[in-house]
Write a structure and sequence with these properties.
The chain has about 190 residues and is an alpha+beta fold. It is about 20% helix and about 30% strand. It has a five-stranded mixed beta sheet with strand order 1-7-2-6-5, with helices on one face. A two-stranded antiparallel sheet has the order 3-4. Strands 8-9 form a two-stranded antiparallel ribbon.
């Protein structure tokens, strides 16, 4: 299962100070269609990777109703651990897919304007090995027999620091946006 993402980050080093807006425009002019640089900020102290603690994922399950998926989600959340297996670079690994899932909810939606589509929304802590959306789907199958009839559509909506209030994903570039003590607003993002 592949995944789309609206929240990928890249750190680059330059040999001279550049205007972030102009750099963003230059990068977008050089990239192929469909890959867009949304924002460029000058990095402050600290590693970006350390600020990427959690991801917010949405999984569309076409052909499945909210009711079908709700029971599986409840069964998954009732467990303190759900082991899954996946092939990694170092061979077959068994790991817990439950503990890193901080929030998991299901809602009803439609795909293509008419087909029933259950929608999973989850916030997952970054761990080693990483617990991916397909691992959570494997765990849902293990605890409740959930088997999507067609491949799901998976999209990462955000990644960043965990906001303790509400368990949401914060802006990993927030501290880099601070200039001269004044907050610089992030550019609007289309979803």
């Amino acid at each position: 299962m592949g995944a789309a993402s609206e929240a990928e980050y890249l750190e680059i080093s330059v040999t001279e100070r550049l205007n972030p807006v102009q750099l963003c425009q230059s990068l977008n002019a050089a990239l192929p269609p469909g890959i867009d640089v949304v924002d460029v900020v000058e990095a402050g102290a600290g590693a970006l990777a350390e600020r990427l603690e959690v991801s917010d994922w949405v999984i569309e399950l076409p052909g499945m109703s909210e009711a079908e998926v709700t029971g599986a989600v409840q069964a998954f959340l009732a467990h303190s651990a759900v082991d899954v297996q996946r092939m990694t670079k170092s061979g077959q690994r068994t790991f817990d897919a439950r503990e890193p899932v901080l929030r998991l909810a299901v809602s009803a939606g439609q795909r293509g304007g008419h087909q029933a589509c259950a929608i999973l929304r989850m916030v997952v802590r970054h761990t080693t090995p990483a617990v991916r959306p397909d691992d959570v789907l494997t765990a849902l199958h293990a605890v409740a027999g959930l088997t999507p009839p067609v491949p799901p559509k998976v999209t990462r909506l955000a990644q960043g620091p965990l906001e303790q209030e509400g368990g949401t994903v914060g802006d990993p570039l927030a501290h880099d946006r601070l200039r001269d003590g004044d907050a610089v607003a992030a550019p609007p993002r289309e979803r």
